[in-house]
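[agent] plan:
  1. take the single chain provided in the ticket
  2. run structure prediction with default settings
  3. attach structure tokens to the ticket
  4. add a short note for the reviewer (M.T.)
[agent] executing step 1
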Amino acid sequence: MRLRLAGESAVTLFVLAALSLAACGAGGGQAGATPGEAQASPAQSSPAGTKVTGLCANQYLPVVKGATWSYERTNSLSSTSSRIDNAITDVGPTQFKILSAVGKFSAEEVWTCTKEGLLRQENSGGAFGAVLRGPTGSATVTVRENTGITVPANVKAGDTWTQKTAFDIQVHDVAITVRQTANFKALGPDQVAVPAGTFNAMRVSVAAAIEYTQSGYTSNGNYDATLWWAAGIGSVKNAGTISVAGGGGLFDYADVLQSYSIPKQ
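[agent] step 2 finished; step 3 output follows
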């Protein structure tokens, strides 16, 4: 069985790997909003009453159990949009879990909290192995390497940081190895309007190189995007371009926040 990275296959795999980088600071709308409900609001930086302390406290990702965010995803390969639902399902002193559903696919991941910031896809503790579930069964993800940081504890314009990740995906009898290096840069403050509201955000660029190896066949891709992170809210928008070698082509995408709910602490 060979999984070829072309057309919708490329969308599926790069969404699970590359676009997951864009979900950094996964959150975002009016607290208590109905998912998918378009709302207007003045520019804002954080929801009233939400307070997070300890290592997991982060300006651009409120780590609160029960927090949810809903996004609309569009891409140039499809005439229809899809919905992304993210939820924080468990929070501990040094790590937390995010459940993300994208169409028929879902992923439950662990993030580790350090004094430098938040690190996504950390699996060394073994408590929260990331398991991807699809319509035809399940796939198990094992992280082999994860260095750097995903969302820094403190971000100011001009800051740069990197995350390097290597992981294996096992789907029935098919094994896929993924390696990716993502380089981030904080570009500066920017006001952005989305259906969930208007936010004073930090605009961040990310450029990632991604390599897939399966049955001796290697495919390479690149991911370039702009992210908008709102303080106390999370990611309110990200938009970019993904290119896949070997016939996979080039496509654009955008994830736009529709609503969010962050419980008061």
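[agent] step 4 note for reviewer: The chain has one domain: 7-261.
[agent] ticket updated
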